[in-house]
């Protein structure tokens, strides 16, 4: 028999799922419309920016500099979103994103995913951290085949770390097309899908700004 406490916990989980799923959509809209205040307010007040800097103002400065320097316009399209809860106020997620960028004379398409950490503070969900992992970025008229698929105008091509969060990619290709001869592993425990796929792999350190 379901208790009142368990029912309230399930309702809270559903409301949290919806709030977290809206975060990447709000992030994309605020970014594409260049609303730096709306964008940085999706992160906690003590957000770490890099270079020893913290806070929303420092993050907004980075936002303004990056997007005025690289892009004339952008459009971010959200794909699949997986969310695992660590506890009622902390969660992690993987979300796909397909993006378009106007970069002067070139129209750059990008496929990527984010590895996110979420935190609820005073009843509101925020991004605690977003780790961008890129598969490719290339002009719409240039297929990104081959190595070093990150190909921004005027920048030497580089690796985007798209597959580096999950060791299964390298393990699969190391078999050189041979079937896996081991037993099928049991399903991941509830709220452990991402963690199970990561198999303890360290976090990649992708190049964030070209």
Automatic annotation (TrEMBL):
Identification of the protein by name: SnoaL-like domain-containing protein
Pfam families: SnoaL_4 (PF13577)
Residue ranges annotated for the SnoaL-like domain, each copy included: 13-130
Source organism (scientific name): Novosphingobium subterraneum
CDD domains named among the record's database cross-references: NTF2_like
């Amino acid at each position: 028999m379901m208790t009142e406490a368990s029912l309230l916990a399930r309702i809270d989980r559903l409301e949290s799922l919806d709030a977290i799923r809206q975060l990447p959509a709000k992030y994309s809209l605020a970014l594409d419309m260049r609303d730096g205040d709306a964008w940085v307010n999706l992160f906690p007040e003590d957000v770490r920016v890099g270079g020893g800097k913290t806070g929303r103002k420092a993050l907004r400065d980075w936002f303004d500099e990056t997007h005025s320097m690289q892009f004339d316009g952008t459009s971010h399209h959200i794909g699949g979103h997986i969310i695992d809860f660590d506890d009622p106020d902390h969660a992690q997620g993987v979300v796909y994103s397909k993006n378009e960028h106007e970069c002067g004379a070139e129209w750059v398409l990008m496929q990527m995913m984010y590895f996110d950490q979420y935190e609820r503070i005073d009843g509101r969900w925020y991004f605690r951290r977003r780790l961008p992992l890129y598969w490719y970025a290339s002009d719409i008229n240039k297929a990104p085949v081959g190595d070093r698929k990150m190909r921004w105008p005027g920048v030497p091509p580089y690796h985007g770390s798209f597959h580096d969060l999950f060791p299964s990619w390298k393990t699969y290709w190391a078999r050189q097309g041979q079937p896996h001869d081991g037993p099928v592993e049991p399903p991941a425990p509830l709220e452990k899908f991402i963690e199970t796929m990561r198999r303890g792999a360290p976090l990649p350190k992708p190049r964030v700004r070209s």
